[in-house]
Design goal:
alpha+beta; seven-stranded antiparallel beta sheet; 3 helices; 28% helix
Length: 152
């Protein structure tokens, strides 16, 4: 019998080109700057990473399951109730903007977080990512950003 999953989804439009938003989200080493409770990320290889999470003594193994260039990034965690996180990036309604949709799904085990907590976590992550983007882009002159985007 298949176990059903719980899923929450939030979306936000940011005043950043979709390719640039994807570029920053795809940098796993930057995750502690905007994912709540994440202290550090150790890259193991192109697929696997090890995350140190606040309140846990042992790290969590995380697998990048999908990565569609400039469109979509998804990962799943070993343990953590089979948690899967996905981010879709697409051009926004306004010029030079991106629509971000973040989805978290997990198995509804007895000790799993409630839906309201996961929804808040997803929204906080997107809000913090928006702030992270603004801060990162503020540090880079426009010419440098355009040059790095055309190379990647």
């Amino acid at each position: 019998m298949a176990i059903s999953r719980r899923t929450v989804s939030v979306q936000s439009e940011v005043a950043v080109d979709a390719d640039e938003a994807y570029h920053f989200w795809n940098d796993r080493l930057a995750y502690p700057q905007f994912i709540p409770g994440l202290e550090s990320v150790e890259i193991i290889d192109a697929v696997w990473s090890r995350w140190s999470v606040l309140g846990r003594s042992d790290p969590i193994e995380v697998e990048t399951t999908d990565n569609v260039l400039h469109q979509y990034v998804a990962w799943r965690m070993r343990d953590q109730h089979g948690e899967r996180v996905s981010l879709w990036v697409e051009p926004g309604a306004a010029e030079a903007s991106a629509l971000l949709r973040l989805e978290i799904s997990w198995r509804p085990e007895p000790d799993a977080p409630p839906v309201t907590a996961q929804l808040q976590r997803a929204q906080t992550t997107l809000d913090r990512f928006h702030t992270f983007l603004a801060n990162e882009l503020e540090r880079q002159p426009a010419g440098v950003r355009e040059s790095s985007m055309s190379e990647g």
